[in-house]
Write a sequence for this structure.
């Protein structure tokens, strides 16, 4: 034990800090390369339009309306519009003239003026698909009234809430099966497919409610060719499998609600004429009845009514050569690609289509007697 | 009297050195020791009780001292370490015999208390403390089987300490045991005052962010680790057991979990893992969602975030960094502060991180929530150091 050799062995095992220091310096040096972190705009410096309206001016220019929910307490919605030759050009102009950057990432609904829809929306849809910021899930709608009118009505009505139209179409909020539900990608598919057409809801600002639905437009190759009512839209939605909780009035005797539906098809081709037999199985529940109809009566009437509506709609689309039920899909295995090219004009008008409907009344609405 | 003088010279700077003469049987015996470690009156009384029944046997001084303690060479080099250890030196000058006696020592250790750094809901709540023998005793109570082995190593040159290597003979992997033994033997000359030095002896990377060994204050955790075949190291005057090796799941699993029903145990562990992920991901996710990819947010949420960020001058990145630093400062301060000043920090920190920063438009409302979530989630981990 010697007093002199105290405290000289504290640093006896210095770990190798050199490589670690080098590594840290390298990482710090790499920070400026993280270019993705700099050119970003915070959310409060962006405008997030929810609705875009597109109409045509008399000079054949596009006029774009943007409905931007406000992020401050004083107002609830901001509507801006601009005219120009292309959609992106207009958006750029609006962005330039606003204090924030217009960011179409949150765009939920595109409302086209009826004139635009009649003239064809192919250019618009491909512009949407080219631009990376518009989601292909964006909903489409057609306005029955001039968009100036429509948007000024919306602005007046959305004092508390800036997202009325958005909620109107939202599946977990205001959507009903009487409303067609078509997205940008479906429209794009309809433009480029031989066998697939779509329906797009037609809306206008309502009297007591904010929005009124007038039915749906038949869109063939991106162009509006005709119109169907809300009842027929419900049948079409049932055919698409989107009818849950839609209500149908059966003549004068009862109203039923569809709780679920299943569909099966059988298709064949004979002497160049397409045949399709479909079977729609519905489960319904009775909401109200007048008099005392029997269950069988309700079933018969419901089946009759649905068949009637569908046939009416089917014949209309046959006349317009727009395959909105996408029945051509069931003939893809029977026809060659060249033949499919003529599906709309050559085969579809001759299609022999019979729909058999089976209804199961699941319950009588918690009452024992009808 | 050469020895007495040289001892006095050696310890002249030490006020607690004592040197008294007493009479044991017929001999004048000198008692040497350190007052701070030896309870002198009690020890003398004990020595006299022991010798009182030897009155009739006429013993030589060497035989007497041998009965009382361990005979050692009457040389400075042999005596000094014994004194420093806290032993009592008996010296009979006439015959020149000298012995080191285990005295009644002064109690310089706190009693066994409940743990301060860990909490247990259902489990034993006595904690390790500074005295290494007490610690082994507690540990032996927890591992009542016979296969627990305790190896002692003296490490350090200037200030030697005992380092205990504890393992379960039947459970431990021999390769692990041999490598730890070899490393301790090779590093015997190095001091172990703290965990970094222990890490140096064991050859772990000192720059690693992940702890290479777990530390626990609770004997049942150490006992459980021994059962699992791990090695426990203990250093004298260090009230923690150091458990080797540390596995990733040790961050999420505790011995205490086994006291819950099985489904709850798995749920709690799952929550801890989720907590770790949240703590690491959320601040970055906030910046990403707010300034780079706001399209991921739902529209309503995006609008309300935009609303809450109105007039905030800094970009989200700077904002988050700023508040994270404040948060870490508060955490560090509240760990370090004495308990009497602690509430001040809690209060002031609460004000800064609470409404004030938001009303001053320095940060957004949501960020406060995000950071609160981060802190809570990060503290869910079983070990504070892994944060």
């Amino acid at each position: 034990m010697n007093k002199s050799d105290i405290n000289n062995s504290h640093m006896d095992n210095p770990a190798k800090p050199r490589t670690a220091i080098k590594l840290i310096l390298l990482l710090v040096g790499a920070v400026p390369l993280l270019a993705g972190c700099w050119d970003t705009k915070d959310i409060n410096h962006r405008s997030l339009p929810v609705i875009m309206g597109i109409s045509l001016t008399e000079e054949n220019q596009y006029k774009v309306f943007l409905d931007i929910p406000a992020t401050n307490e004083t107002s609830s919605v901001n509507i801006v519009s601009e005219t120009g030759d292309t959609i992106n050009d207009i958006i750029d102009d609006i962005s330039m003239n606003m204090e924030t950057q217009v960011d179409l990432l949150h765009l939920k609904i595109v409302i086209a003026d009826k004139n635009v829809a009649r003239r064809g929306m192919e250019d618009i849809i491909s512009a949407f698909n080219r631009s990376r910021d518009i989601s292909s899930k964006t909903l489409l709608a057609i306005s029955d009234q001039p968009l100036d009118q429509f948007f000024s009505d919306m602005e007046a009505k959305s004092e508390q809430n800036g997202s009325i139209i958005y909620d109107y179409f939202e599946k977990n909020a205001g959507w009903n099966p009487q409303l067609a539900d078509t997205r940008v990608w479906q429209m794009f598919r309809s433009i480029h497919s031989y066998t697939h057409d779509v329906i797009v809801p037609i809306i206008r600002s309502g009297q007591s409610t904010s929005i009124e639905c007038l039915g749906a437009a038949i869109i063939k190759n991106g162009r509006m060719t005709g119109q169907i009512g809300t009842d027929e839209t419900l049948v079409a939605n049932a055919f698409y499998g989107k009818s849950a909780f839609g209500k149908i009035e059966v003549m004068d005797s009862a109203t039923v609600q569809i709780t679920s539906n299943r569909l099966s098809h059988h298709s064949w081709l004979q002497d160049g004429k397409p045949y399709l037999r479909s079977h729609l199985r519905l489960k319904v529940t009775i909401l109200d009845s007048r008099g005392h109809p029997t269950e069988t009566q309700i079933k018969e009437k419901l089946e009759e009514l649905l068949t009637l509506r569908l046939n009416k709609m089917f014949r209309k689309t046959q006349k317009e050569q727009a395959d909105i039920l996408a029945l051509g899909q069931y003939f893809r295995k029977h026809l060659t690609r060249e033949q499919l090219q003529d599906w709309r004009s050559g085969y579809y008008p001759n299609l022999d289509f019979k729909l058999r409907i089976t209804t199961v009344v699941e319950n009588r609405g918690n009452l024992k007697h009808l | 009297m050469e020895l007495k003088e040289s001892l006095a010279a050696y310890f002249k700077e030490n006020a607690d050195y004592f040197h008294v003469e007493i009479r044991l049987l017929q001999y004048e015996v000198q008692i040497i020791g350190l007052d701070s470690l030896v309870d002198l009156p009690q020890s003398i009384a004990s020595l006299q009780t022991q010798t009182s029944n030897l009155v009739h046997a006429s013993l030589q001084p060497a035989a007497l001292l041998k009965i009382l303690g361990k005979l050692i060479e009457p040389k400075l080099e042999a005596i000094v370490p014994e004194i420093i250890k806290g032993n009592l030196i008996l010296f009979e000058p006439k015959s020149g015999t000298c012995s080191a006696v285990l005295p009644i020592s002064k109690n310089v250790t706190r009693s066994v208390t409940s743990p301060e750094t860990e909490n247990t809901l259902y489990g034993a709540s006595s904690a390790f403390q500074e005295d290494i023998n007490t610690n082994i005793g507690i540990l032996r109570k927890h591992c009542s089987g016979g296969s627990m082995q305790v190896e002692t190593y003296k490490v350090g040159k200037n200030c030697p300490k005992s380092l205990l290597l504890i393992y379960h003979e039947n459970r431990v992997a021999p390769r692990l045991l041999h490598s730890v033994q070899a490393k301790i033997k090779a590093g015997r000359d190095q001091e172990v005052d703290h965990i970094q030095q222990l890490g140096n002896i064991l050859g772990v990377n000192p720059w690693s962010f992940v702890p290479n060994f777990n530390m626990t204050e609770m004997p049942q955790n150490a006992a459980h680790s021994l059962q699992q075949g791990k090695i426990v190291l203990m250093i004298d005057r260090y009230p923690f057991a150091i458990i080797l090796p540390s596995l990733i799941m040790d961050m999420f699993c505790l011995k205490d979990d086994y006291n819950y029903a099985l489904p709850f145990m798995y749920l709690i562990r799952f929550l801890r893992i989720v907590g770790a992920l949240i703590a690491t991901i959320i601040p970055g996710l906030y910046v990403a969602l707010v300034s780079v990819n706001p399209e991921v947010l739902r529209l309503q949420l995006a609008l309300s975030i935009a609303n809450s960020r109105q007039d905030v001058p800094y970009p989200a990145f700077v904002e988050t960094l700023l508040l994270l630093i404040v948060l870490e400062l508060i955490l560090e301060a509240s760990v370090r502060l004495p308990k009497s000043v602690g509430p001040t920090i809690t209060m002031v920190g609460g004000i800064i991180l609470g409404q004030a920063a938001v009303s001053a438009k320095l940060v957004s409302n949501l960020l406060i929530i995000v950071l609160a979530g981060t802190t809570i989630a990060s503290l869910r981990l079983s070990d504070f150091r892994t944060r």
Observations:
- Residues 262-292 of chain B form the longest helix (31 residues).
- Residues 132-251 of chain B form one domain.
